[in-house]
Amino acid sequence: MLAVSASSPPFRVLFSHVDILRRSHELVRDLQTCLSDEPPCLVQVIQGARPFARLIQIGLAGGLPVHEVRASSYEGTESTGAVKITMLDGLDAQMVNSREVVLLEDIVDTGRTIAALREHFLALGARRVRVVSLLSKPSRRVIEVEVEHIGFEIPDEFVIGFGMDLNGRYRELPDVVVYDAEVERTFESVNA
Ligand code: IMP
Question: Is 133 in the pocket of ligand 1 (CB under 6 A)?
């Protein structure tokens, strides 16, 4: 299936918006069975995880806030290796101390980001860290990292849409699609 929209190239759809809604609903159910009675500290990895984190937040109900952390390791379609972590909107060690942190991520690729975040929150005193990721590319791992809840496993393809971008573009696409430079070039030359 191709994503058909007048304003974006017809990239191949990997997961439609409906697929994502359905799977997120299942992930919420799984997560609920694993969480203790105490409300977890939800933390989304911005910006890519925002739409997915919103679905999980709504599904969990109870009005839990979602805190934000920035972890940068990517430039273009290549991982740069080092992970820089920035805590946002007042998230601090006190809020994390002795609590279960649920990290909401768009995609786990090499595993470096999630490994660094897990270590970071444990060092801040989190009782445990649980990872929920919409996507995972297991064939790309360079670090063995536990991802407790995975929406979909995908092959080694660069995906965009539903929050995920390529240099700031395509986040707003409703589906998860496979980026293809040739498709993009053809689209842009036809629409120039
Ligand atoms: P990791 O540290 O290599 O696991 O990379 C995780 C981060 O890389 C994700 O949070 C994304 O921001 C980015 N990333 C990895 N693969 C893709 C992709 O296929 N599309 C968009 N972003 C990606």
Answer: no
Domain boundaries in the chain?
Answer: 12-184
Rounded distance from Cα 108 to ligand 1 centre (Å): 6
For ligand 1, say whether the CB of 113 is within 6 Å of any of its atoms. Answer: yes
CATH architecture of 12-184: 3-Layer(aba) Sandwich (3.40)
User: What is the full per-residue pLDDT of the chain (192 aa) written as tens digits?
Assistant: 776 667 899 999 999 999 999 999 999 999 999 999 999 999 999 999 999 999 999 999 888 999 999 998 755 566 666 889 998 988 889 999 999 999 999 999 999 999 999 999 999 999 999 999 999 999 999 999 999 999 999 999 999 999 999 999 999 999 999 999 999 999 999 988
**Rounded CA separation 173/102 (Å):** 25
Q: Which atom of ligand 1 sits closest to the CA of residue 142?
A: 3
